[in-house]
Amino acid sequence: MNAPEIAKILPPDTLLSRPFWEGCRQQELRLQHCADCHQFQFYPRIVCSHCDGSDLSWRKVTGKGRVASFTIVRRGISRAYEAPYIVALIDLDEGPRMMSSVVGTEPETVTIGDIVEVQFNQWGEDYLMPVFQKLEQI
Amino acid sequence: MANLGSTNKANKLSGKVAIVGVADTEVGVLPDRTPMELCVEAALKAIGDAGLKKSDIDGILTCNSMVQPLMYHAEAMAEYLQIFPRYCMAVGAGGGTTFTAIHHAASAIATGMADVIVISMADTMRSGLSREQALKVQASTGHPEFEQPYGPTVPAYYALIAQAHMAEFGTTQEQLAAIAVSTRQHAALNPAAQMRDLITVEDVLASRMIADPLHLLDCSLVSDGGSAIVMCSAERAADLPHDPVYILGAGEGHSHEHISAARSLTTSAAKEAGERAYNMSGLKPSDMDFAQLYDCFTPTVLVELEDLGFCAKGEGGAFVDSGALAPGGSLPVNTHGGLLSHSHPGNPGSMFALTESVWQLRHTAGERQIPNARHGLVHAQGGIMSSHTALVLSREVS
Ligand SMILES: [Zn+2]
């Protein structure tokens, strides 16, 4: 068993978002979609944050988006996170914004507005986390 | 359009309540003191400054300590001091706790819930946090499921705001650095400040990069310390020794908890907080002789200058370049040295901006006194630009 400060932080298991993490294990990004207003939302909720509707279902999305903002973390939160690494906000093509990372490139080459696509990185033993790669490089 | 609250004439709060006692403890590195001891020391000094006795206090507001968390923090302080209040509560709104507590205390006095309230806050973030607690504090601001796993640090969250502002408006690292420089110029005039050696823009840019574009000197201090104030009605204040400082306006704005769910990265709910506070006071940004703005990192000051109406959106960088924020400038900002240079003991941090404002408005701020200061704006925020409170303070009731 690793000491807490050298293990990566894992998402707590919640019943509501299990389909999201199950999708990640199958290499697909899923978002909740509202049958009433036809909009997507993230993070998962028991109601639609746009119209209060409750007829929500999980849909696979494109996994494409653009970098809304980012920072290069030079001093990592713990030894499990090897600096420098990127923390970014990604605006998905379907509308919602999510926090993630941009990987597979020198951090200094990332800029706001970059077009990115999702990929899935192993996080601990049981999780695959959605991270993003600049699309030109794929 | 947001409801911006009642206007000056209609509201029941403006000018009805005053700050009559203030005190800070020593700040910096205080390894021999517990948060509760600092809280008690600040409270007793503030009660003494008000010319009152412990037995005059019938209301207590505190904030919990991160180092020494207590289930019933305010009750614990009341018990320690053997005060038996009829209004007693620990408030929790992160860095915004301070002025949110003042807003509630003012309402409590105006509605008769309490007559004389002491608000005391302290923590020992510098000397008292274990490594495990420090890591927990770092992680605690993020969404546990959809933010924390990516390893964001507290500076990283604010760096996301800074980068967005730079991309949208052309703001520069030099302009952010200039905020740290002018804040240090104020601190140099304050014997109580933790960091008093003057710095330059070059010093800031040469300091270690923490999370691009934020350098070490763009980040606030980590400190031990405590601060307290005493509030009562304007009528009662007239009989007490010091010039009362009146609360003319108070306003809050709350837009999100997590930065990934913020309505905007570059416009914060400080805008609504400020509009509500100005509206209640009948005063406007240009009436302010100084502003104390929450400066956990330099970009927060830039966004707040814009959102609180001191310059147009996107022009914060140019406003900083004008020299307005420095001693002798058109809008001195954080005249005690702020969280960047005076001290930052966690959630109590902006209490020191409030005690400083009271000294400025009493005209007892010594070498750093702003000549003939009449009105001042104070602002604090908690979370990641999430929870905002603004207060308009004055030495006059109009
Ligand atoms: Zn909907």
TrEMBL record, chain A:
InterPro entries from the UniProt entry: ChsH2_C, ChsH2_Znr, NA-bd_OB-fold, Thioester_dehydratase-like
Stretches assigned to the ChsH2 C-terminal OB-fold domain: 58-120
Gene3D superfamilies listed in its UniProt record: 6.10.30.10
SUPFAM superfamilies the record matches: Nucleic acid-binding proteins
ChsH2 rubredoxin-like zinc ribbon domain ranges (all copies): 21-56
Matches recorded under Pfam families: OB_ChsH2_C, zf-ChsH2
Name of the molecule in the record: Zn-ribbon domain-containing OB-fold protein
TrEMBL record, chain B:
Superkingdom assignment: Bacteria
GO MF annotation list: acetyl-CoA C-acyltransferase activity
Coiled-coil positions: none
Span of domain Thiolase N-terminal: 17-234
Residue ranges of domain Thiolase C-terminal in the record: 251-395
Pfam family, one: Thiolase_N
Database matches in PANTHER family: ACETYL-COA C-ACETYLTRANSFERASE, NON-SPECIFIC LIPID-TRANSFER PROTEIN-LIKE 2
Protein name, UniProt field: Uncharacterized protein
